[in-house]
Amino acid sequence: QVQLVESGGGLVQAGGSLRLSCAASGRTFSSYVMGWFRQTPGKERERVAEISWSGTSTDYADSVKGRFTISRDNAKNTVALQMNSLKPEDTAVYYCTARESYSAIYAYWGQGTQVTVSS
């Protein structure tokens, strides 16, 4: 099992950058696929980015490709989401998530951190 705690959200102007961090507890962090999701009221939750257990494979939503970068440090049990060229439509609560590599279901979620991008 793994516990996830996000940090780094806040208010930023359009075109700016933010870096979200997620600290994970648990001895098997390196075995999990990690992801970032986001959600705004009235909209479905969206998977933003995902990174393999080794960090060698990443995947992004089309809406953030070229602007967001996901990374992980298995030695420190952390995963990060670097967000550049932010747009007002990126405003959402961002969640750090984890799933077993053999499962398609994200079983573990952080509490979420608010990102607000002003125009």
Report what the structure shows:
By secondary structure, the protein is an all-beta fold. It is built from no helices and eleven strands. Strands 2, 4, 5, 6, 9, 10 and 11 form a seven-stranded mixed sheet that branches. Strands 1-3-8-7 form a four-stranded antiparallel sheet, with no helix packed on it. It is globular and about 40 Å long.
In brief, what are we looking at here?
The protein is mostly beta strands and 119 residues long.
Q: How far from one another are the termini?
A: 40 Å
Shape: globular
Major β-sheet annotation: 7 strands, mixed
- What is the number of beta strands? 11
How would you spell out the order of helices and strands? EEEEEEEEEEE
Helix and strand content put the structural class at mainly beta
Number of helices: 0
Which whole number gives the mean pLDDT? Answer: 95
> What is the beta-strand fraction?
over 45%
Q: Helix share of residues? A: under 10%
- Any low-confidence stretches, pLDDT <50, length ≥5? none
What is the radius of gyration?
13 Å
Keywords:
single chain; 119 residues; mainly beta; seven-stranded mixed β-sheet; four-stranded antiparallel β-sheet
Write the layout of secondary structure elements.
Blueprint: E1 3-7, E2 10-13, E3 18-25, E4 32-39, E5 46-51, E6 58-60, E7 68-73, E8 78-83, E9 92-100, E10 108-109, E11 113-118
Parallel strand pairs: 2-11
Antiparallel strand pairs: 1-3, 3-8, 4-5, 4-9, 5-6, 7-8, 9-10, 9-11
